[in-house]
Request: fold
Amino acid sequence: MFPDVPGLDINGLTYKYRTVKETDADMKVSVGNLNSAGDGYTFKEVDDWSGMPSNTIVKTFPIPNIPIENWGDGSITVEGEGTVEDAVVIYNFRIDECFDPQLNPSCPGYIKPVPDLPEIEVYAALEDDAVLDAIDTEQDYEYDEDGNIISEDDNEEKETRIELGLIASENALTLFKTQGQSNIINQMNQQTNIAMYYNSAINGGIYDDVASLDGGSISDNKKGLRNNLAQQILHEQMVDMQYNK
Reply:
């Protein structure tokens, strides 16, 4: 019996046995293994011992990786005169990692698996009868800028302030209407009346020049005369120097 291991296949076989017979007797020994369908052999070897003395034989055969599913019952049969003793059959096997391509990404035919995403049921609040019953109320609430519910007291106070404001506006308009249009025009004209500037006069007359010189004459400035004379002499000297005089 072979172990029930997925991916197991046979890649070699060794058998050993000892014959007991007369040397002149005819004898054939068959070592075989039926295939799983039962209509033939997956492996079979026949040893002819006719005219040979008793002896022990050991044989080894390579097997081309035949899957374990193709192997059936094994047997050793004798044809002729003689017997077989101490018979042993050894199967060499391996595990084919690619018998299922999905076990190893390097196997031919490997398909990258797609994760099985769970189905998520989306909760629709507006389809929940309990939610609809909770929000289906006759009373409508008002909210302030911060999202807080405005109570009825706040609404009454707000309405009172609005009414007072409207009353004050109406009073102001009434007072404004009592002023006649003519009064308003007169006040505007007073702000822009410039006739008063044309009628203004400046008090004054003719102012004569009455300046006089005490003594009747102005004497020469002797100090200034000396300075002028000194400058004249210096100028003449500079001119003479230019002409090397």
Q: What stands out?
A: The beta strands are 8-20, 27-35, 41-48, 56-67, 71-80, 83-95, 142-143, 149-150.
